[in-house]
Design a protein that fits this description.
The complex is a heterodimer.
Chain A: H1 3-10, H2 13-29, H3 36-39, H4 52-69
Helix pairs in contact in A: 2-4
Chain B: H1 4-24, H2 31-36, H3 43-54, H4 57-70, H5 85-99, H6 105-113, H7 115-148, H8 152-201, H9 203-212, H10 236-254, H11 256-262, H12 268-282, H13 285-299, H14 309-317, H15 322-360, H16 368-393, H17 397-423, H18 429-449, H19 460-481, H20 487-490
Helix pairs in contact in B: 1-8, 1-15, 3-8, 3-11, 3-12, 3-15, 4-13, 5-10, 5-12, 6-7, 7-8, 7-15, 7-16, 7-17, 8-9, 8-13, 8-15, 8-16, 9-13, 10-17, 10-19, 13-14, 15-16, 17-18, 17-19, 18-19
The chains are: A mainly alpha, B mainly alpha.
Chain lengths: 71, 505
């Protein structure tokens, strides 16, 4: 077993779940930095519900809960 | 096995798909209408189509079988295998793909990097799509023949007629509209199955109690992430780094069937929203597919073939009528796969081979009407050819396995060149070609000789991660020692390089 394998095997379950949750959060939260003109490009109006950044942030919440609590 | 009422439900469903699909064809007047639905479809229809194309009937059977064997860890492929990949694709890739007005991913890579990368990508995708088309047609026919009591040859040609008719007349518009309908049938049918399965085993608490009582074999059945040295095929490290970071993103940004659907959106906003709506729908897929598998484990812990978990629960718990609906859902999944592979094969052939050949011969691009005519002819040719090859594809299982393995080798390198193609204007065509070939070569070497270096017996999650890392390093290093591509090649294709008129700077 390589040193990397040994290190990965030694990690406790909370580290696995923290890694998964971090990936989900970081992979989704970066969209808050996407400019509004890109988010609303081609949209017929700029109503709040069309803000796709909010969609991403709302949709990721159940995924985060699943990966944090389903152990 | 099916009662007359069930048969009526299945036949009504098939008739409805055919009518709706053919009606959708009345608005098809050009190649653009045929290949990308005239760029007129709303986000919800495209999102549902992405989900249903992604879940085949094989996934339903083997997914439930996987839940029976390995527990809820099987859900990772729909959960962390969808998020955050679909968010990344929606905000990072879709704007550039949509604005570049391409029909295929190889076409985008061709514009960004040149013809070499385009042809390599198109060839591997076309081989995979055609093999899958014949295989899915065979499976649909076996399933339909089994349910309706027809012989397999008759079932093949009935499926060819139904799918061929609506795909030839309606193109991608018909495919997406029927897919949306198919997703509703799948969700309604499987929700009924889940509710009745849970009632059979005493609800969620009864399910947990019965499965946990089965001893050491089910110790991990309710854990989503498993140890790095687990004897099951989904260690947490492979799931997070291989699946979550590389494979899922590569799948959603490089899969022709998925991306072609987003190109059919009526606006760039709808294209991005479709991807996010699909991510929301994917949340429910494991619940619908895997709970019946776990319920079968609770009710029948000694099944010889875990892939029989769902069929067994269908027979046991569903009343007449609902059984027909769930069978219709299975057939929906199969048909949506057949129509997706058929439409995508046609699009890749005409765009990446025929279009390139015309350009090489100095001819102008085909007119919209000619594109439509060729698209329809090729659709008929492919579905009829698939009808003839479907009965023999099973005998050549090694070809299918080889193509699927080859495609998996491409995932990491493809993600690397797509990512750097969009993010880094200095990435060059030569670097992308070397990274693609070198990354695939490394992945092939690791697949053949690297098993001892990984803890899992099936190390594709780790191989995709390391081939991605190697391809990233290659793109960067080779780009820095090769001359930059001319600005006109990358205009509109790279972050910070869309014109002000197009709204992104």
């Amino acid at each position: 077993m390589s040193a990397l394998d040994a290190w990965l095997t030694a990690q406790p379950p909370w580290v696995w779940h923290l890694a998964a949750v971090s990936l989900l959060v970081l992979g989704s939260a970066w969209v808050v930095f996407v400019p509004a003109r890109v988010v609303y490009a081609d949209a017929p109006d700029r109503r709040r519900w069309r803000d796709l950044r909010l969609w991403a942030l709302v949709i990721v919440v159940p995924y985060v809960l699943l990966y944090w609590f389903l152990r | 096995m099916l009662q007359p009422l069930d048969l009526v439900v299945v036949l009504l469903y098939l008739g409805a798909v055919l009518v709706i699909g053919v009606l959708a064809g009345r608005r098809v007047h050009s190649g653009g209408d045929f290949f990308v639905g005239g760029r007129s479809l709303p986000f919800w229809a495209i999102g549902m189509s992405i989900v249903v194309s992604d879940i085949g009937a094989i996934d339903m059977i083997s997914g439930a079988g996987g839940a029976y064997r390995y527990g809820v860890a099987q859900a990772n492929f729909d959960w962390i295998g969808s998020m955050p990949a679909m968010v990344i694709v929606a905000f990072l890739f879709v704007p550039y793909l949509y604005r570049s007005r391409v029909y295929t991913i190889p076409e985008f890579l061709g514009r960004r990097y040149g013809v070499g990368v385009q042809l390599v990508q198109a060839a591997i995708w076309l081989g995979f799509l055609l093999a899958m088309l014949a295989l899915m047609l065979w499976m649909s026919a076996v399933f339909l023949g089994g349910v309706l009591g027809w012989n397999t040859t008759l079932a093949i040609w009935v499926t060819v007629a139904i799918v061929g008719l609506y795909t030839t007349t309606g193109g991608l518009r018909a495919v997406i509209i029927t897919d949306a309908m198919q997703m509703i049938v799948m969700f309604v049918g499987f929700t009924a199955l889940v509710v009745l399965c849970l009632a059979e085993v005493g609800g969620i608490s009864g399910l947990v109690e019965k499965v946990s009582a089965l001893g050491p074999r089910t110790d991990d059945h309710f854990a989503l992430l498993l140890p790095h040295d687990t004897d099951k095929p989904y260690p947490w490290s492979g799931i997070v780094f291989g699946l979550g970071m590389v494979l899922s993103t590569a799948y959603f940004c490089g899969n022709q069937a998925v991306i072609q659907r987003t190109m059919a959106a009526r606006s760039e906003w709808d294209a991005k929203a479709a991807m996010l709506f699909a991510a929301l729908c994917k949340l429910f897929v494991p619940v619908l597919v895997f709970l019946p598998g776990l319920a079968a484990l609770a009710a029948h812990p000694e099944l010889e073939d875990p892939d029989q978990a769902v069929p067994k629960m269908i027979v046991e718990v569903l009343p007449t009528g609902l059984t027909g609906l769930v069978f219709a859902a299975f057939f929906a999944a199969l048909m949506s796969s057949v129509d997706s592979y058929l439409n995508s094969s046609t699009t890749v052939t005409l765009t990446d081979f025929y279009g390139r050949a015309r350009a090489a011969l100095g001819k102008p691009p085909a007119s919209p009407r000619e594109e439509l005519r060729l698209g329809r002819v090729l659709t008929v040719v492919f579905i009829v050819a698939a009808g003839f090859t479907a009965p023999v594809i099973e005998r050549f299982e090694t070809i299918y396995v080889a193509l699927q393995t080859l495609l998996s080798l491409f995932q990491g390198p493809t993600l690397a060149i797509l990512l750097f193609g969009v993010l880094w204007r200095r990435a060059t065509g030569k670097a992308a070609f070397v990274a693609l070939v070198g990354g695939v070569g490394l992945a092939a070497w690791l697949t053949a000789y690297g098993e001892d270096h990984f803890p899992s017996n099936d190390p594709f999650l780790f191989i995709s991660f390391w081939s991605f890392v190697a391809s990233v390093a290659t793109v960067v290093l080779v780009s820095l020692v090769t001359p930059p591509d001319p600005p006109e090649r990358i205009r509109g294709l790279v972050v910070g390089h869309l014109t002000a008129e197009e709204g992104i700077s």
